[in-house]
Automatic annotation (TrEMBL):
Coiled-coil regions listed in the entry: none
Keywords in alphabetical order: Membrane, Transmembrane, Transmembrane helix
Protein name stated in the entry: MTX1 protein
Classification of source organism: Eukaryota, Metazoa, Chordata, Craniata, Vertebrata
Residue spans crossing the bilayer: 104-126
Presence of keyword Transmembrane: yes
One Pfam family per UniProt: GST_C_6
Example GO biological process: mitochondrion organization
Signal sequence, renumbered to the chain: none
Length: 148
């Protein structure tokens, strides 16, 4: 039911936009910002279930609307999402040429963050000094045991 209502909403938006560039003529209004903020992620994101995304891509005027706003206000992002759902010629493992590097960097950043938190919160500490294998603390513990 949720998908049906969302599809109906997209269809109604498409009918309202018609062949106009923006919902209220040739210049954007706050409604355009609101609608774009909901349509652009739906159009650009990789979703596990693409039913709604495919319906949006079938509504050419909404697709062109998003592409126009993307190219006008976000030129570095482009607006090619309406043309092809997936890049042609890329295999399953070739989606992102830097995928392995990004994964490794993410793991390293996570590790550094966890270690930093452990040090700063006092969970882990580094003791400096000339404490040998028979360090001071075990001796102190033995002395305490003898006193009892």
């Amino acid at each position: 039911q949720l998908y049906r209502e969302a599809r109906e909403c997209l269809t109604l938006l498409s009918q309202r936009l018609g062949s106009q560039k923006f919902f209220f003529g040739d210049s954007p209004a706050s409604l355009d910002a609101f609608v774009f903020s909901h349509l652009a992620p739906l159009l650009k994101a990789k979703l596990p279930n693409g039913k709604l995304q495919q319906h949006l891509k079938s509504l050419q005027n909404l697709c062109n609307y998003c592409t126009s706003i993307l190219s006008l206000y976000f030129p570095w992002d482009g607006g090619e999402s309406c043309l092809l759902p997936h890049p042609v010629g890329l295999g399953e493992g070739e989606e992102d040429p830097h995928k392995r590097r990004n994964q490794l960097l993410s793991v390293l950043v996570g590790l550094v963050a966890m270690l930093g938190y452990a040090f700063l919160s006092g969970i882990v500490s580094i003791q400096r000094g000339g404490v040998g294998p028979a360090g001071r603390q075990p001796i102190a513990m033995e002395e305490e045991e003898e006193e009892e």
